[in-house]
Amino acid sequence: MSLKSPALGDFRRIVVKVGSSLLVDSEAGRVKEDWLASLAEDIASLHKKTRDVLVVSSGAIALGRALLKLPKGPLKLEDSQGAAAVGQIALARTWAEALSRHGIAAGQVLVTLQDTEERRRYLNARSTIERLLAWRSVPVINENDTVATNEIRYGDNDRLAARVATMASADLLVLLSDVDGLYDAPPGKTTKANRIPLVERITPDIEAMAGAAGSELSRGGMQTKIEAGKIATQAGTHMVIASGRIDHPLRAVADGAACTWFLTGANPVTARKRWIAGSLEPKGSLVIDKGAVAALNSGRSLLPAGVIKIEGAFARGDAVVIRGPDGAEVARGLVAYDAEDADKIKGRSSSDVLVILGFAGRAEMVHRDHLVVGRS
Ligand code: GLU
After folding, report:
1. What is the pLDDT of residues 78-124, one digit of tens each?
2. Is 227 in the pocket of ligand 1 (CB under 6 A)?
3. Domain range spanning residue 310?
4. Domain stop point among 214, 242, 269
5. Which of 344, 291, 342 is nearest to 316 (CA)?
């Protein structure tokens, strides 16, 4: 193997996905409190080392069905939705309590497929998550199963977690699972199954190794985990599949426990920049002054003060071309304000934005993370 597995301590923003069967004891119909306490301790220790941690937790439907004493077996969509409505309350409380023992505030975020796929809603969800992280809170995220319908839902939290990780520009996604990684044959079925420690690229061979197995509680089998790996690694996020069937599962990964790493070649900011530079239709332009051109060239963000003129009808989050006073393209980026608001605050200091617009928007017109200067 040419590449070494990364270490958990190398990452600054980590999404931890927890499956239903790890968290919920289906026989007893309740949360596995001791296990959760050990995971919360691991999360708190990363948090203390100034890492940003986000949790994607399943378990709403499993807890709801236990609380409602629903019979075993597959549930109809309406039943899952109702069970999730009941279970999500218990799930959120469970996480809030487990994290509060370490002085961490949990923030519940329920998302639907549209929230991650439609640009405007995506930006909204992303800024809420950013705000929670800025407050050093831990977002606890799940699909909003109660309103998600069959055609338009994730259904499994593996892919949801991967989208959340890319949305938050996380550099690592940890999928805690009831298996400790990807095997070249289904574990248990044959004695010759070998765990693959490191996947540098998800090839058709790797995809073929993922059977469709899932348990009664968990929607996702290895297939959805490989799908998650594709989403994550293409967007600059590393992924690791590790066992959650032990106490302190994150500490175990840090200590080198058996797992499968999926490596990404890109880093999240580079990947996003490539996407901004390459694949977007600019909706308008911002003409900026000489001082702002110099600021952009030295890697800084574009502030409202440096903008002279707004052209086109763009919405917050759209791609715009940024031109110098002579009209030449200087950069491209995702603008933080609608055209109308941008026009009102152009040439003004960021501290005036609240007074002019009546709400406190971003200090930057285009943040440097969303800016590609000199598209070469
Ligand atoms: N969102 C579902 C729940 O909380 C879980 C989906 C999954 O198992 O991945 O019950």
Report:
1. 999 999 999 999 999 999 999 999 999 999 999 988 888 777 788 88
2. no
3. 280-373
4. 269
5. 342
Q: How far is the CA of 215 from the centre of ligand 1 (A)?
A: 12
* 112 and 249 part of one domain: yes
Residues 84 and 178 occupy one common structural domain: yes
Ligand 1 centre from 45 Cα, in Å?
26
Q: Does ligand 1 come within 6 angstroms of the Cβ of 61?
A: yes
Helices 157-167 and 222-234: angle between axes, nearest 10 degrees: 10
| Alpha carbon of 350 to ligand 1 centroid (Å) | 42
Q: What is the mean pLDDT of the chain?
A: 88
308 by DSSP, 3-state: which? strand
Asked whether 21 lines ligand 1 (CB < 6 A), one says no
Asked if residue 54 is part of any domain, the answer here is yes
62 neighbors 87 (Cβ within 8 angstroms): yes
Mark whether 43 and 81 lie in a shared domain: yes
Q: Does 152 share its domain with 239?
A: yes
CB 88 less than 6 A from any atom of ligand 1: no
Q: What is the secondary structure of 110-135 as a DSSP string?
A: EE-HHHHHSHHHHHHHHHHHHHHHHT
Query: For 194-234, how does the pLDDT look when each residue is reduced to its tens digit (9 = 90+)?
Result: 889 999 999 888 888 876 444 444 445 888 999 999 999 98
SS3 assignment, position 42: helix
Counted domains in the chain: 2
Residue 174 and residue 70 in one domain: yes
Report the CATH number at residue 94. Answer: 3.40.1160.10
What's the angle, vertex CA 179, arms to CA 176 and CA 184, rounded to 5? Answer: 125
Centre of ligand 1 to C-alpha 145, Å, is 8
CA 256 / ligand 1 centre spacing (Å): 28
Counting atoms of ligand 1 from 1, which one is nearest the CA of 219? 8
My answer on whether 176 and 286 are in the same domain is no
Q: Kindly report the number of other CB atoms within 10 A of residue 217's CB atom.
A: 18
Please indicate whether residue 62, judged by its CB atom, sits closer than 6 Å to ligand 1: yes
In order of 68, 131, 133, 239, 326, the CA distances from 47 in angstroms are: 35, 16, 10, 19, 48
Please tell me whether residues 335 and 298 are part of one structural domain: yes
